[in-house]
Design a protein that fits this description.
ph1033 like fold, five-stranded mixed sheet, seven-stranded mixed sheet, single chain, about 35% helix
Length: about 425
């Protein structure tokens, strides 16, 4: 598979220059004709999120619009930059009689005025490209939640625009596309999930993605995933790690066990666990605070904690970025808070704590789980690396010693695995 840099080098500088066979037309044509698997789209988007510059920002906008097409929308691409006589939306997605006006952002680190997106919708209604607000909404899509999306969420709620505007991460949109592509939900259901009903799209999408991952994951039995939905309230949305409901777990048929299976208790376990950004704490800060203090925490619904013992190894996947740290288990999990006060949040959700040692951080050189790396992992031995792979990072999971070495940049592909 071509890397994003290779593709952008071939198509040229992405801009709004008019005419046929322009760089933007070539790039969008390439996506339309050659990029049909969500796994490949995810790889390209993660490359945009970890690089800076207008070329990556413009590619991100096109990739998000392309994802909308893969969900099933009729997509009209917007401009990269606003112009006086044009409505400056980033994309217009249509499904039957409903339309979504999309605004793509690399980060929420800067102040965002909701009035801008509302104005785009109003102008489209005035131009008779949309009928009325009852059949339209504005959608912000962020590649990175560097400020936890808190300011924008508060603006949406405070200005009483929750029926007009919604907020999503790129990861949520990709998960939604995977659910459609893997035929876990229909396109109508996907649109229903995006329609107004709350500020954050991720609430329901994460739950569905986790249920789908349970059906897809070949080793779910050996180390069950915790729930990791996004819980939001009107006044203070909070992103937390928790677990799929017991009812949902019981209702989902269990796949047969395949390798890798749970190891005997006398052998060292190798585990990967995901960490997401929270409104009050970014994923990297959470990982750094806990590991620097020598602790980590799990929830009640993380059955894998019962198997952890001193000497086992953990690595930490920052959602949307890559594996960024590793450590060694020093004590068995106990139902009590860490002895170091104030380092863990939401202790009612994560009441089990255990000591860690020998922590190593590589935030500046995360091990990106791209298609080339996935092709080297035991977990993907019988899978096509370019296809949907979010099941692999949805929850805490057992990996082989071979995979752990690669995921932490110490295996056979250390030079290739590290990305920035």
């Amino acid at each position: 598979m071509f890397t994003l840099d290779q593709i952008l080098g071939l198509v040229g500088t992405l801009d709004d220059a008019p005419g046929t066979n322009t760089p933007r037309d070539r790039f969008r044509g390439f996506l339309r004709d050659s990029v049909g698997e969500i796994g490949a789209v995810r790889d390209y988007i993660e490359a945009c999120a970890t690089n800076s510059g207008a070329q990556y920002d413009h590619a991100l906008q096109d990739l998000v619009n392309h994802t909308g097409m893969l969900i099933g929308f009729d997509v009209e691409y917007g401009r990269y930059r606003g112009a006086t006589n044009d409505i400056g939306h980033d994309g217009l997605w249509r499904w039957k009689d409903f339309a979504i006006v999309v605004e793509v952002k690399t980060t929420d680190a800067f102040t965002i005025k909701t009035e801008t997106l509302v104005t785009y919708v109003n102008k489209l209604i005035s131009a008779e490209k949309l009928t009325h607000w009852d059949q339209a909404m504005g959608l912000y899509v962020f590649a990175r939640a560097d400020s936890g999306l808190k300011s924008l969420a508060n603006s949406v709620v405070g200005e009483k625009r929750t029926r007009e505007l919604r907020i999503a991460t790129v990861d949520s949109i990709l998960q939604l596309a995977e659910l459609v592509q893997d035929e876990h939900i229909t396109r109508d259901e996907a649109v229903a999930l995006l329609k107004p009903g709350g500020v954050f799209v991720a609430d329901t999408v994460d739950l569905l993605a986790r249920i789908a991952a349970k059906a897809t994951d070949p080793q779910t039995d050996s180390l069950p995933s915790p729930d990791v939905p996004v819980v939001s309230g009107a006044a203070k949305p909070v992103l937390i790690t928790t677990a799929v409901s017991e009812t949902a777990q019981q209702a989902e048929p269990q796949p047969p066990k395949t390798t890798p299976t749970a190891l005997p208790s006398t052998e060292r376990l190798h585990v990967m666990t995901p960490v997401k950004d929270e409104v009050d704490n970014l994923a990297q800060q959470t990982i750094a605070d806990l590991l620097n203090a020598g602790w980590y925490v799990f929830g009640d619904a993380t059955p894998g904690r019962k198997k952890l013992k001193p000497g086992d190894r953990l690595c930490f996947y920052e959602s949307g970025l890559g594996v960024v740290a590793e450590a060694e288990v020093a004590t068995v999990p106990e139902l009590k808070p860490p002895a170091t006060k104030g380092i863990a949040k939401n202790l009612d959700k994560f009441p089990w704590s255990f000591r860690l040692s020998n922590a190593r951080f590589f935030f500046d050189e995360p091990v990106v789980i791209d298609a080339d790396l996935r092709a080297k992992l035991d977990a993907f031995a019988d899978r096509e690396p370019a296809k949907s792979w979010s099941w692999f990072v949805q929850g805490t999971r057992l990996v082989t010693e071979h995979d752990f070495a690669i995921l932490t940049g110490k295996g056979e592909s250390q030079g290739d695995a590290a990305g920035g």
